[in-house]
Amino acid sequence: MFVAGCRWCFRKDRPLFYNSNNGAKIMKLRGYWYTRHSVCSSRVKWLCGDSRLRDCHAIVVTIGHTMVDKQNKHTHPPG
Ligand SMILES: [Zn+2]
């Protein structure tokens, strides 16, 4: 359960970064896969990897290895 203002709560939201077979940057967070959408300075915006298949508009923003923002909810379970 997320508690506003609790910095330690972000630790369980630590994203994991990978390279896909075609060399694209991908990221896994809490069971969901994301594909890199855009980079602005050090902020990287990630789109849900199932966005096209599932009409899902979940977005996560990371700086380094820390999640700093997320928008929208997934329309589907992880996996
Ligand atoms: Zn999604």
TrEMBL record:
Any GO MF annotation of the entry: zinc ion binding
Domain FLYWCH-type: 17-76
Origin superkingdom: Eukaryota
Keywords: Metal-binding, Zinc, Zinc-finger
Keyword Metal-binding: yes
Alphabetized Pfam families for the sequence: FLYWCH (PF04500)
Protein name: FLYWCH-type domain-containing protein
Organism annotation: Bombyx mori (Silk moth)
